[in-house]
Write a structure and sequence with these properties.
With about 100 residues, this protein is mainly alpha-helical. It has two domains: about 45 residues; about 55 residues, no CATH class. The chain has one helix and no strands.
């Protein structure tokens, strides 16, 4: 009977230790996340300045880049397929669009 109890206790020890260490790690992560949020709130948020070639399209939202360019991605994240980080002024790959409404 004692051997069965010993085997049972030894069998339950690893999962219990694992559960305990996981809860300890989660508590540490939660406290670090809370401290990071408090530090970010104390510093305040910096506002991101929009680039001068950001124009509101006729649709919802804003996009970057020159709407008259053929390679314009019509995205708020990248300017175009050829030169994603810009700038659009004096871009050597500029090609005017053929459609009249600039693809909007």
């Amino acid at each position: 009977m004692l051997e069965i109890l010993l085997i049972f206790i030894l069998g339950l020890t690893p999962p219990l230790l694992s559960l305990w260490s996981r809860r300890l790690a989660e508590a540490r992560a939660t406290s670090r996340l809370r401290a990071a949020r408090e530090a970010a709130a104390a510093r305040g948020l910096r506002s991101l300045a929009l680039s001068p070639d950001t124009r509101p399209p006729e649709r919802v939202g804003q996009f970057l880049g020159d709407p008259s360019c053929r390679f314009n991605a019509k995205s708020a994240y990248i300017r175009c397929a050829v030169n994603p980080i810009g700038p659009c002024q004096d871009c050597p790959q500029y090609q005017p669009r053929e459609d009249i409404n600039f693809g909007l």
